[in-house]
């Protein structure tokens, strides 16, 4: 805290991860102390902060701050998204970069941890303004990234449009056509199944986790929150697996459809019309629409939070337990508060943390890197099959790591340990660097 003041999110992330690793750290105390493993782990290999000047539509020069934190490259090139949001600061980028190290390690693919972004707000900006910002941002960032060095991706505020502008500027300055960014359009190196990957991956992991706990997802009911990219494809895969999703939500309200969410209607409202969920009733007269929050009050077997951070609170956890919920699997990043997580675990609910359960997105980004390196595009089925294998593996690895240290069934501890061990082994093997 003295070394890095004013970075509360980073301190919180480090504390949470290290506390859950206590048992591993104590078992290896002497070795870790001598090698200063933890001290090295919490210090980014490199952090870059830079000026991003651009001209707005009125001819006025604007100045934003750009960041890239290259946290850990022990197991592969730095990999992690670029967040464009006014709340971005160094502490937030460091917190996300730190978490990314373990998530990427868990996928079993050769990707290190990093994160970046800017305090630029794309909301309300014209296409030309967004392009001017992205080009200026990449003009500086291109000095530090590359297909074998650091491969950024999208995140909040950075979608296909922004990735396209950044890729174009990288190619123009560096003069190389390489897979330096993921989340690209399909016409210039993007991967099939990337759009579906996080939602589908969540269900592949959930199904396997239920299976190793002696349960079958087929025939179960599920509550989903959110109605964005992760939520839509989670609902799609859940239905394909024979489960019935009865809720979805956005930031103003939520829908309860006892017959199961009509995915065609949801996609049309959210992906085509870009409208609010109030429209859902026009397609499904028997459904209910409620203002505010409330998806966790419905009696279901599964809860899949897919909207945003801190959206499943202690009172929601209590309601879920009371209604006999069997499992909570996180599609979003950090949707369940710490208090709610502990309550669910203490009451026998199977709990899969986002670090493991939503890793399908970054895993498929790593598959995009592989396709770019061999200058080939795999079919949707090929990518989807690999994704399925990766999620099943993650599930077994976190289960095995929890068991190995006497925490059977605690997948929060299991996921942290499984991700941590591989990175630390690689760091020690590579010497004092
Ligand atoms: P989107 O922006 O596509 O969707 C987010 C959804 O959540 C929207 O329906 C949004 O509603 C809703 N939402 C936002 N804030 C709230 C709130 N306070 N209460 C209720 N609903 C809310 O994002 P994604 O689906 O891509 O991401 C969702 C989560 O998953 C995020 O935590 C993200 O970091 C995480 N994630 C995403 C990955 C990906 O590949 N997309 C990969 C790994 C993690 P509205 O439309 O009203 O804003």
Overall description:
It is a single chain. The chain is an alpha/beta fold. Among the domains are: 44-180, Rossmann fold (3-Layer(aba) Sandwich); 198-357, Rossmann fold. The chain is built from 17 helices and 12 strands. A 7-stranded mixed beta sheet has the order 9-8-7-6-10-11-12, with helices on both faces. It has a 5-stranded mixed beta sheet with strand order 1-2-4-3-5, sandwiched between helices. Helix 13 links the parallel strand 11 (327-329) and strand 12 (350-352). The two termini are 23 Å apart. NADPH dihydro-nicotinamide-adenine-dinucleotide phosphate (NDP) binds at residues 198, 226-231, 249-251, 306-308, 311, 331-333, 358, 361. The site of NADPH dihydro-nicotinamide-adenine-dinucleotide phosphate has 19 residues, from helix 9.
């Amino acid at each position: 805290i003295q070394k890095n003041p004013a970075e509360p999110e980073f301190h919180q992330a480090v504390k949470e991860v290290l506390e859950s690793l206590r048992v591993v750290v104590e078992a290896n105390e002497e070795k870790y102390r001598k090698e200063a493993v933890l001290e090295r782990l919490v210090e980014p290999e490199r952090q870059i902060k830079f000026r991003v000047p651009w001209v707005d539509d009125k001819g006025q020069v604007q100045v934003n701050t750009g960041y890239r934190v290259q946290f850990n490259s022990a197991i592969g090139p730095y990999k992690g998204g670029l967040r464009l949001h006014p709340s971005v600061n160094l502490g937030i980028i460091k917190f996300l970069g730190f978490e990314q190290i373990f998530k990427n390690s868990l996928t079993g693919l050769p990707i290190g941890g990093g994160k970046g972004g800017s305090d630029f707000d794309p909301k309300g900006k014209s296409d030309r303004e967004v392009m001017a910002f992205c080009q200026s941002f990449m003009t500086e960032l291109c000095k530090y990234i590359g297909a074998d060095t650091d491969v950024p991706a999208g995140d909040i505020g950075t979608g296909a449009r922004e990735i396209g502008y950044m890729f174009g500027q990288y190619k123009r300055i560096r003069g190389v056509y390489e897979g330096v960014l993921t989340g690209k359009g399909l016409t210039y190196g993007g991967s099939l199944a990337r759009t579906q990957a996080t939602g589908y991956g969540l269900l592949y992991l959930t199904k396997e986790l239920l299976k190793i706990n002696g349960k079958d997802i087929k025939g179960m009911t599920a509550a989903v929150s959110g109605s964005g990219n992760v939520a839509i494809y989670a609902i799609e895969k859940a239905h394909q697996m024979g489960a019935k999703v009865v809720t979805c939500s956005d930031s103003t309200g939520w829908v309860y459809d006892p017959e199961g969410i009509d995915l065609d209607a949801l996609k049309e409202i959210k992906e085509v019309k870009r409208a609010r969920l109030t429209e859902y009733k026009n397609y499904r007269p028997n459904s209910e629409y409620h203002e505010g929050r409330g998806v966790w009050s419905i009696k279901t077997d599964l809860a899949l939070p897919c909207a945003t951070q801190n959206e499943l609170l202690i009172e929601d956890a209590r309601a879920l337990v009371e209604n006999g919920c069997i499992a909570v699997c996180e599609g979003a990043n950090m949707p369940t508060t710490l208090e709610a997580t502990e309550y669910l675990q203490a009451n026998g609910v199977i709990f899969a943390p986002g670090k493991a359960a939503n890793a399908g997105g970054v895993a498929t980004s790593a598959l995009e890197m592989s396709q770019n390196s061999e200058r080939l595009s795999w079919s949707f089925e090929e990518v989807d099959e690999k994704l399925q294998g990766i999620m099943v593996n993650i599930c077994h690895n976190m289960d095995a790591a929890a068991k190995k240290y006497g925490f059977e069934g605690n997948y929060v501890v299991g996921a942290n340990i499984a991700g941590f061990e591989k990175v630390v082994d690689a760091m020690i093997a590579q010497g004092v660097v």
